Every structure is written in structure tokens, then in C-alpha cells.
From TrEMBL:
The chain crosses the membrane at residues 12-35. Keywords: Membrane, Transmembrane, Transmembrane helix. This is RDD domain-containing protein. It comes from Mycolicibacter sinensis (strain JDM601) (Mycobacterium sinense). One of its GO terms (cellular component) is membrane. The keyword Membrane applies. Residues 116-149 are annotated as: Disordered. It is a multi-pass membrane protein. The keyword Membrane applies.
């Protein structure tokens, strides 16, 4: 969320425009926060969660959290200055912080189990074969070969 705020702050300081720093930067910060929480509510993931293979879901039915629940969860976290995110006693549902317990949401690690929000298409980085020896490489361009004797 700092991404729009930092260049705008630098531009405001460089050009001596205080209104840019006092008005535009907070509006940009809130707009990016709102976008990210809406995205998380609709998809169950953010940039960081996607990189780590995590999904935010409703605990009872493992469905997408919804925009209202994602906004409430994030607001609880922000209002308590992050203290709501401290784990009390983690449970088997993925709820570890108070902001998760109060909103009925939980974070699942989909890298170790099924993804409740649908399959993630992941093409393999290399073809897996039973034979672990060197693979024969064929040229895509036909190369004429000389016939011997």
C-alpha cells in the first residue's frame, strides 16, 4: 500500500506542493487499501498470499470470504495496530489471530492440501519422466544426415 504513497510524497516534497502530501497521499493509500481488501474478499488472496500459497476462506464452509468480512478483518487489524493478528491459541481451522476469530475467517495453506477455491493451474517446470537419465534432444529443424556405406 506504500507503493503509491512513496513516489507521491517524494514528488510533493520535490515540487513544494504540500497539498499533494496532505491530501493525495492519504487518498491514494485508502484507495489501494480498499482495492486490496475488495480483491481479497472476492478471490481469497492478495499478492503476498498468492506468492506464499495461502488463501483466506470462511471457516465453516471454506468459501470466499466476501468483501464485508475482508474489510472487517482488515479494519480490526488496523484499529488494534496489529495486536489482533497476534495468535492466542491456534486451532485446526486456521484461525490464529483475534481478527480471524471475530470475523469467522481463516487462512489455509493450499500448497500442502486441496485448494477450496478451485484448482490452481500450475504447468510443470520440466517434464517428469520415470527415466532420470539424460534425455535425448531432437532438433526442431530437420537436419540431413549422410548415409554410410
Amino acid at each position: 500500500m506504500v507503493s503509491p504513497a512513496l513516489p507521491l510524497s517524494v514528488a510533493g516534497a520535490a515540487f513544494g506542493v504540500a497539498a499533494l502530501v496532505y491530501v493525495v497521499v492519504p487518498v491514494a493509500f485508502v484507495a489501494v487499501w480498499g482495492f486490496m481488501q475488495t480483491w481479497q474478499g472476492l478471490t481469497g488472496t492478495t499478492f503476498g498470499k498468492a506468492l506464499l500459497g495461502l488463501r483466506l476462506v470462511r471457516v465453516p464452509d471454506h468459501r470466499r470470504p466476501g468483501v464485508a468480512a475482508a474489510l472487517t478483518r482488515s479494519a480490526l487489524f488496523a484499529i488494534t495496530l496489529g495486536l489482533a493478528g497476534l495468535p492466542g491459541k491456534p486451532d485446526q481451522n486456521g484461525q490464529s489471530g483475534w481478527h480471524d476469530r471475530l470475523t469467522g475467517l481463516g487462512v489455509l495453506d493450499v500448497t500442502v492440501g486441496a485448494n477450496p477455491l478451485g484448482a490452481r493451474p500450475q504447468p510443470p517446470l520440466r517434464r517428469v519422466t520415470a527415466d532420470r537419465s539424460l534425455n535425448r534432444v531432437h532438433s526442431p529443424v530437420p537436419v540431413p544426415t549422410k548415409k554410410r556405406g
